[in-house]
Design a protein that fits this description.
The chain is an alpha/beta fold. The chain contains 7 helices and 8 strands, in the order βββββαβααβααααβ. Bound molecules: iron/sulfur cluster (SF4). The site of iron/sulfur cluster has 10 residues, from loops.
Length: 183
């Protein structure tokens, strides 16, 4: 049973940029996670030990995100968004709700970069959007020199054995540094 709720906020602004993933913002269109991994750090949180029961979908997340990103783009507060910190956007229920996909459409429209972390092949459904983001996203000024360099893209460096990475590699976009994906 999935509970549908209306959230009050969309993006979480990090106090400090994550040094490894470079995220400035996180976005959780769902609560909990049906993959229920034994090693998940969320188990230690208020959500307890069962990650797959009591899933929640924030049905108004794309609308809230649109409002937030319109404002942030106007102020040029660009930064990597991680659409997955306390949940997984590409769970099986996303096939029905498509909240993560609609959030990616908003992110693409306002040209924010993303960092996606997932174990779900459903992300391949959104490959076209990730490629669009990769081509047009605006990097925060202090990351431009670090990431706008020649060389293999971040995607290729991560896990070339995985089919998702192979599919991304087949698409071969120079701009994948702005749509970084980890499996
Ligand atoms: S996929 Fe990620 S968020 Fe989901 S249970 Fe596993 S570690 Fe946690």
């Amino acid at each position: 049973m999935v509970r549908e709720i209306f959230a009050k906020t969309s993006l979480n602004k990090h106090k400090r940029r994550d040094e490894w993933f470079l995220d400035d913002y996180s976005l959780n269109p769902y609560q909990l996670c049906e993959f229920n991994c034994v090693y998940c750090y969320i188990r230690e949180s208020k959500y307890g030990s069962s990650m797959s029961s009591g899933l929640v979908v924030k049905v108004n997340m794309p609308t809230l995100l649109e409002r937030e990103l319109r404002r942030k783009a106007r102020r040029k507060e660009f930064g990597f968004i991680a659409p997955s910190s306390a949940t997984k956007p590409w769970m099986y229920i996303e096939e029905k709700y498509r909240v993560a996909r609609r959030c990616l459409e908003v992110i693409a429209r306002y040209r924010f970069p993303v960092h996606c972390l997932t174990k779900s092949p459903l992300i391949l459904r959104d490959l076209n959007l990730l490629m669009d983001i990769g081509k047009s996203a605006v990097l925060p000024p202090d990351l431009r020199d670090k990431l706008n360099h020649e060389g293999p893209s971040d995607v290729l460096a991560l896990n070339p054995k995985h089919q998702c990475c192979q599919d991304l590699r087949a698409k071969g976009s120079e701009s994948q540094r702005k749509a970084r994906c980890t499996w």
